[in-house]
Amino acid sequence: MKLYASPFACSFTVRLALAEAGLNVETRWVDLATKRAQDGTDLTTLNPKGQVPTLVLDDRAVLTEVGAILQYVGDQASGRQLVPPATSFERYRLQEWLSFVAGELHKILSVLLIIAPTVDPAGAESARRLARHLLPQRFGHVARALSTGSFLMGEYFTVADAYLFNMLIWARYVEFDLSPWPELGAYFDRVAARPAIAAVFAEEREARVAAQRR
């Protein structure tokens, strides 16, 4: 498999899940400004949306979108409990969390990371205010869930936790104050301490530094 990714973009989520799954994958870093991978590939020839993550399977099938790729990865990792069994109620609960993180955290944090810096100053400030107004309720919901379990699905790590961890990193990057929810801080430390997560985190840092030097 080949994963087209960009350091600390939402493709980080997929790299975390792949590491936890123990699956072999070749990461090809993409410059999102040019849509070119380090090997010269034009990302839009694989994914017309020109976005990461883009996963190319061994049979050359292409899968995009974080939620879809996460469930595919989890299904390939038999015995790892990264996703509940298909058609079980818990699988639908996982889908609920994936949808929440995608729609209520990923999109809102994207306003602070991507949208606001690219619009006029007045519009940017308005976008930032709205995003920061919406986030406390969303993070409060997550914190309440984590008050009764170590992870989103209870006591075992799933692909939804990979997604949430990525979003907590984004929140820290844009200096959104998470201190009102100590559950989130404890959760972040718990996930960051997992060996597979720590290894990918270090790789992403190295890739970001390398990209900044180009």
Automatic annotation (TrEMBL):
<feature type="domain" description="GST N-terminal">
    <location>
        <begin position="1"/>
        <end position="81"/>
    </location>
</feature>
<dbReference type="InterPro" id="IPR036282">
    <property type="entry name" value="Glutathione-S-Trfase_C_sf"/>
</dbReference>
<dbReference type="InterPro" id="IPR004046">
    <property type="entry name" value="GST_C"/>
</dbReference>
<dbReference type="InterPro" id="IPR036249">
    <property type="entry name" value="Thioredoxin-like_sf"/>
</dbReference>
<dbReference type="Pfam" id="PF13409">
    <property type="entry name" value="GST_N_2"/>
</dbReference>
<protein>
    <submittedName>
        <fullName>Glutathione S-transferase</fullName>
    </submittedName>
</protein>
<dbReference type="Pfam" id="PF14497">
    <property type="entry name" value="GST_C_3"/>
</dbReference>
<feature type="domain" description="GST C-terminal">
    <location>
        <begin position="87"/>
        <end position="214"/>
    </location>
</feature>
<dbReference type="InterPro" id="IPR010987">
    <property type="entry name" value="Glutathione-S-Trfase_C-like"/>
</dbReference>
<dbReference type="InterPro" id="IPR004045">
    <property type="entry name" value="Glutathione_S-Trfase_N"/>
</dbReference>
<dbReference type="InterPro" id="IPR040079">
    <property type="entry name" value="Glutathione_S-Trfase"/>
</dbReference>
